[in-house]
Design brief:
By secondary structure, the chain is mainly alpha-helical. It has helices at residues 7-15, 20-30, 32-46, 62-73, 75-85, 108-113, 116-121; strands at 52-55, 88-92, 96-100. It holds the Pfam family KH_NucS_shadow.
Length: 130
């Protein structure tokens, strides 16, 4: 299971209305490693003038790797994280998470990062099974 959903949040979803912040809190509690990683790259971006900030450190274990994969593979989770942090997230391999300024999404830097070439150049034998 990717999220541990409190019964109150499940009831809200069943009735049709869930506030973004309630969902984000569920993500933060359920996927702490993913939350910390995204928080870190978003904070690094905010404190710099760069177009993006990224994490190149592989997760310490499979559980943490799974959290990143679940968070970034889910459209709902990923988009809520993007809205919460005010960034556009990009993801390569099992761990390379980048936060881009929304204004940089049309930049050459962003296009290079999310390109096929960028993906291929970010490969290495030790990441074969990540």
């Amino acid at each position: 299971m990717s999220l541990t959903v409190p019964s109150s949040l499940l009831r809200a979803a069943e009735s049709g209305s869930v506030a973004d912040e309630e969902f984000v809190a569920c993500v933060r509690e359920s996927l702490p490693y993913a939350w910390q990683t995204v928080s870190r790259v978003a904070a690094a971006l905010e404190s710099s003038d760069a177009e993006f900030a990224d994490n190149e450190v592989p997760p310490p274990g499979e559980a943490e790797r799974g959290q990143l994969l679940r968070a970034l593979a889910s459209d709902a989770i990923r988009s809520s994280l993007e809205r919460h942090f005010g960034v556009r997230l990009a993801f390569q391999n099992c761990h390379r998470v980048a936060a881009f300024r929304p204004s940089a999404v049309d930049s050459d830097t962003y296009r290079r990062f999310v390109s096929i070439r960028g993906q291929l150049l970010n490969q290495s034998p030790e990441l074969l099974n990540c």
